[in-house]
Amino acid sequence: MAPSFATCTEVGPACPVEATTYGYYPQLGSGIFLTAFFAFLALVQLGLGVFTRTWSFLIAVFMACALEAVGYGGRILMNKNPWSQDAFQIQIVCLILAPTFLAAGVYLTIKHIVIFIGPEHSRIKPKLYTWVFIACDIGSLILQAAGGGVAAAATKKNVKLLDVGNGIIIAGIAFQVATMSVCGLLALEFFIRAHRSGQGFTPKGSSHGAAVRRSFWIFCAADAFAYLAILIRCIYRLPEMAGGWGNPLMRNEKDFLLLDGMMIALAAATFTIVHPGFWFPPMRKGAKAIPHSEGTSVNDSTEK
What we know:
- The chain has a single domain (24-280), classed as Rhopdopsin 7-helix transmembrane proteins, CATH 1.20.1070.
- The chain contains eight helices and two strands; from the N terminus they run ααααααααββ.
- The protein has helices at 28-52, 55-80, 85-117, 126-157, 161-196, 210-242, 253-273, 276-279; strands at residues 290-293, 296-298.
- Strands 1-2 form a two-stranded antiparallel sheet.
């Protein structure tokens, strides 16, 4: 009988590490570093979110960082025992789900950027950036969670179910890539239309000075960088999962750490260093109404 989670509980002559899904001992050093790094970011996000009252953003990014920390904790356990079924389940589910929450943070920021510059330039209403895209995010989350659950359960009784779980996960990730791509295109079109309007990128009648405008553009650049990092990670996951469990790409830890771990670490760190509570105050709950066109104003105080 071929080695599998159904027959192996630890590495030995009959159960070599090469027969595991990943075919290697996950690096201990990178596992410890990323676990500590994401746990630290989660705590910082908690403090910053409470202090600046950016509640929705806090929930999204905190959950992403917390799940990443738990996921890499699972890889630390797999370094000790690559055949640990519990560790495998922890890391596969958490590391697949975490970026979905981080993407939700992107959708929240785009909504508020649209409100700040002027909803008249957007093809859809600002609230739809959260309602529609976060709803799609939740759909992606459900698909990936279901796939991860099926895959994790299959390791014990029916290895063939891994393919079923894998297919569901791929569908969830593909849906996530499509969702992010559509959102990114809408945001890009919004900026192009705002630029062509000749009205500039600050609200009419606004008293914001040069320093505030510079802070806003730094935040927009950081938001775009985080978006691209998350998108790169999601695109990487498609061929990694599409090749089937134990395929060569899935067994390449360097690619995984670069295109998954580092991309999400960069996105989460960017959202922590360039936190909207300080760099884009309109996202704070209770922020002052901002005039965005003559005779009208938007009260951007809900942070939803």
